[in-house]
Amino acid sequence: MFPPYLFVINCKMEKLRVQCRVCGKELQGNSGKTHSCGCSNMMTVRGDTVSAVDMSQVIMLSFTKKRENVELSQQDLDWQEARRKRKVRKMDFEVR
Fold this sequence. Notes:
Elements: E1 7-10, E2 16-20, E3 26-29, E4 34-36, E5 44-46, E6 49-52, E7 58-62, H1 74-84
Antiparallel strand pairs: 1-6, 2-3, 2-7, 4-5, 5-6
């Protein structure tokens, strides 16, 4: 998928605008379309994913995060608490 020297950031975003510090080109992410700056840093925007050779040379100009409201029910919280308090069983084996 990506060469091993590329770093990838995945976020759920709607409108994503990033700028490459090397060439100064500004790119906007669109779903289903890939945009690349074409300089030696090879900053690429694919929908909501930004990749580049050196991510310190990439500026995030604007983005909107989608927040997922996930709340656990009381039954789920009780199960997690019971799971956390369980004891570890030690098994005895006969040594010959």
